[in-house]
Each structure stands twice: as structure tokens, then as C-alpha cells.
Amino acid sequence: MSDAPVDYRPMWRELGLDLQGHDMLLAAIPQLYQAAYLTQQNRPEGMKYFDFVMSEIHGLRIKELVDHKAAGGTVIGTFCLYVPEEIIRALGGQAVGLCAGAEWAYDEVERLLPRNTCALVKSFMGFKLGKVCPYVESADLVIGETTCDGKKKAYELFGELAPVHIMELPQMKRPADVGLWRGEIDRLVEKLQDTTGRTLDFEALRDATREVNDKRRALQRLNAARAASPVPISGKDALLAVQIAFYDDVPRFTQMVNALADELEARVQAGDGVAPADAPRVLVTGSPMSIPNWKVHDIIEKAGAVVVTEELCTGSRYYERLVDERATTLDGLLDDIATKYLDINCACFTPNPGRMEDVLRLAKEYKADGIVHCALQFCGPYQIEATQVERVAKSAGIPLLRIDTDYSAEDVGQLQTRVEAFVEMLA
Amino acid sequence: MSHAVRVLGLDIGSRTVDAVWLEGTGAHNARVVESVVLDSGPEPHKTAARLAARGDHDLLVATGYGRRAAHDVLGAVAITEIKAFALGAADLHPDVLAILDMGGQDTKAITLSAPGVVDDFEMNDRCAAGTGRFLEVMAAALGMTMDEFGQAALRAQRGLPISSMCTVFAESEVVGLLHRGEDRAGIARGLHEAIAKRAVGMLKRAGAQPPLLFAGGVARDPAMAALIAAAFGGRIVVADHPQLVGATGAALHGLQP
Fold first, then answer.
1. Which residue, of A365, B147, B157, B159, has the greatest Cβ tally within 10 A?
2. Cα–Cα dist A185/A84, whole Å
3. pLDDT by residue (tens digit) across A287-304?
4. How far is residue B55 from each of residues B34, B50, B58, B81, measured CA to CA in Å?
5. Do B49 and B150 fall within a single domain?
6. How close B118 comes to chain A (CA, Å)?
7. Closest by Cβ to A424, choosing from B68, B83, B125
8. Rounded to an integer, what distance in angstroms lies between the CA atom of residue A314 and that of residue A309?
9. Which of A404, A413, A424 lies at the smallest CB-CB distance from B79?
10. What is the ipTM of this complex?
């Protein structure tokens, strides 16, 4: 798929991939990417880096991870924003997000999981069972969490295929839960020390904290530019940047996002946009949209609207809050890490009023004309919480379209009609 | 607009292609020059193209599932059926606050905040159960024409409950009931009741308030209209030309400044 002369097949074979299946998976991506991304007009120059990353999605980055391991480092797979990347990095690990955004090997998956399981869970199981993901196969350890039921029970089966460490994420955010969570972070530290053979020290954790905060700050800059009218970057492009944040080399990613943010800020000054100033502005909120799932953003933007911000795990929940960098002891820093992470407003928590506030705040800041709530089918937390988001949008007088979907192309026609009708209402 | 314009509005659906030619300087003085409902045939896009090829219009506006192709191939302006029905209703039945459109493979509930202004809408999701296609299959299973099917359902004293919503399984259920010697009119009524219940469920989810406009091919079935009126619990108006509401709305869109 990339026209680099490097042959990655020996590396993939070494990782234990099913080469035939993997070829099929890779072969599907360019056309998908072309149709969604490369037909866009007036894309920022800075997106070329992300196009390149996509073209090397299972190539160069994997090579970097393989080399990292050869040099004594570890690769730690994660499935959730709540898993502190700082701790992984401070112990010489590279964190890679394993949530997947494409259907694969569903026939194999459905022998273990019910058909009526959310697409994200089925996808990561399918990538593992089908042996088509070099990120999964490179991981020395995979960290799961007790977030939603689907993931929780799927990890029990995933654990038969790869080493898994489960963090118990509380269901509420009361003082007792903060204590539980801090305890889970300590337990994670112990496990990672064991896996990496290193001991966590304050300086390493402080440095890692700054690095990951810098990544978040860069994404904050990129996304702040989207509040402008006309908007300087498409929702699809901004979404891609966050999706890549989950597994790219941290300092390099930060640098490239800052460069892109510079370019977007210049565009804003010049009034240079990717859509007309009167294109309806949409906020997307709901279940995570993992790479390569761009379906709903694509439908919205091809219907003539522009996505100006995302209240998603692959959006504001990823970069909005930073870890406090002022701690002077390891214990203090671990407390601050625990606090920042617990502050993320996922629907797994009950109650979750913070998310309602975030959605309204973002809708206002980004001057959204409408909200699209997109939940994965069978995603209990987000599908059910959508009712509260609807109420909140209604009292704020913001039109909201509710979508429940999966990764298949089956419902694209109907979604197009519904989204187009919604965009007609906003125009 | 200062001069009269002739707009061809097309509603390109899975079963029929509906066309309305409107002439006027605006929606307020638009008059229907001609209208026609044609079978889509195996290639709805071709049927639509033939109508457009008559060339006796200044502007072409398309809605329905074939609107994108009409836009790409015939240069039509495309609007969704949601908007088209809202505009059509505003012209033909301006007092309604909600629309139920039951077509060949789609059912839509649309609520209006003002004539022509969409407030909310619901559509059937992945499955086409409870649409015109379902009724066609069931009529055939009972050995009836669509007219006979509607009349039988109206006649029956009570409806036999049908448990399956899946078109294929429901058909099997009907065949089973016939073998048992059950009354065909009762089966017809039971089938209509199941669809009406589903449609009213959708109307309630959309927050529909009376008066309700009932449109689409299925609105021609008098039994369906009666059952939906009863289940909805408010005033319903059956569109005079149920299959032309979308095409009328599309044409009206072309007359807007």
C-alpha cells in the first residue's frame, strides 16, 4: 500500500500475523482513505504527515516499536483513555491504543461473543483472532479495564489469547472511589514494573507527564482553531489526528500537531476555511470512533455540514484535561495522575453530569448549530445516556440528531437521508 | 422571481416514480400542470430519466431514494423526502402538525414546528418490516389484490394477532393460519393492525401531535387509514393524492427564491 521499497512481510511474519488476511485488510484501506480523505478540498499542508502515517500504518510505526523492544523497551496495549500513558512511558514503555474501527473475522468472533455485541469490542476481538493487527501482536502486555460490560466480559476471553492486566475503574466518583482508583494505579505500577523490569521513579514520571501533557496541549491548540468561522480544518482531519495520537511516537506527533496548529492559526487569521462560513456547524458526541472508522464524520461532511468539535474519547475527552505538573514527589504525582484520569466524563460512570456540561460548553464555544449523538449499537452506556444529552440539548435550544450505528456499510443510505434532513433543518 | 417558471418535482422511490409539474412565480401561485405516478420498474433511475427527458421544465428537483443519482446524472437539485414532505404538506394540507409517510420500503414520521418547517423525524432503521412491501407480500400470501386486502381488513370484525414482524416469517405465519382454516379477512385485519401499531409507535417517538397527514402509497389503503386514526387518537387527514406529496414538495422547493 505504501510505495516505499521496504518489504515489511518478514517483520509481519515474525510477529505472527496471518499474512494473507493481513494483506486483505491492508488492501481495503487505501480506497476507503481516498474516498473519505483525499477528495477533500483545501486541506491543510500539515495533514500530509498524517496521510503519510496512514500509508505506513502497519509499516514504519511497527518497525519503530519492534526496534524499541529490541533496545529493551516494551509495548503496552491499551483500550481506554483511563489507562495512564505517563506511567507506561516512565517505565520505558510505549502505549498503543488497540480499539479498532473495522469489522474483521466476525465469524470467528461470533463463536465467542454474541452477535449483539458492540462493534468496537467485536472488532478488537476479530483483529486478535484473525491475527491481522501488528499492534496487538507486538504488545508485551495488554491493559483492560472494567468500563462497560461488553469490554469487561470480552477481556476474560481476550485473556486466553494474550496477557491481560485489568484495572478496576470505579463506577462512581465519590471519595471512596478516588481511593479505589489510586489503589488500582498502584497495582498497575507494580504490574508494569514486573513486566518492564524497571522501577518507577519520580523524575522519569515527571518527564513522561510533561511529554504527554505536551501532546494534549498540541491537540488543544489544533482543536481551538476549529472554533473559528470559517473553520480551517475538516472534522475528518481533526478526528484522524486524535485517532493517530493513540499510537504514534509521542514527541514527533506533538511536533507535527503543533506545526499543523501553527498553520491553522494562520488560516484563521486569513479567514481561510475548508467549508463556506455558512455551512452548518456540527458537534459530534457519543461512543468512541476508532481508526479506521470515519463513517459518520464523512456522512455529515458530505451532506454539506462541517464537524467543528467532538465530545468523544477520540476527541475532547482525550486532550481537554492535563495532569497537574506541580507535584514534587512520586506519591503526589501519582495522586495528580489519578485525579486527572478519573475526571474524564465517560458514560461508564453513574451519574455523569460532567458530560452534559461538556457537551453544552463545547456547543457554545464552537458555535455548533446542531449536535449529532452517535452511539454504537449495543453500547448500553452511550445509547442510554443519549436520552439525557437530548434533554440537555433541547433545553438549550440546540437541535440534536440521534444515530445508533456500527461499522458496516449496510445503513449508510439511510444515515445519509437522516443526516441530510438534519442538515436541511440547520441550514 | 418575476417570470413564471415550470418546475418538475420527482419523487424517485423503490416502487413508484411520482412526478408533479408546477408552474408559477412562487409557491403562492403555483398550479399543477400535470402529475403522474409511474411504476419504478426494475430501474427507477431510467424511469425518472424518461420523465426528465420530456424537457418541458425549467428546473428539476428530485427527492426519494433516487435523488442522488438524479442529481449526479440529470443535474437535479436534491432534497430529502423529509423536507419534500414538509413542503408538500404545507401547500396541500397547511393545518397539519405531523406527517406519516408510508411508502414501499420506508416509513417516516415527521413533526412540524410550523408549516413547511421540520421539527423532528423518525425513520425505520435497517429493516423494512411494516412498510408497503410487507403489505404486498401478505396480500399475495392471502391470494388477494391490494384493494381486496384493504377491503377485507375493513370488513373483518376482529383481527387475528400476528406475532412476527419479519416479512418472511410473517408470511409463513399467514400460510400456517390459512392451513388451519382461519378467516382470511381476520388475518388481513391482524396484519394491518400490526403495521398500524408499529407506525403509531414511531409517531409517538417523534412526538407527533394531531392533526396528522397520512401520505405515501400505503395511505391509499382505507383499512390502514382507519386503524391508524383509531390508534393515534387524534384527527388524521388522508392526503388527497397520497403518492404526490413528496413530488409536490420537491417542485415547490424549486419555486422558492
1. B159
2. 8
3. 999 999 999 999 999 999
4. 14, 9, 8, 23
5. no
6. 6
7. B83
8. 11
9. A424
10. 0.91
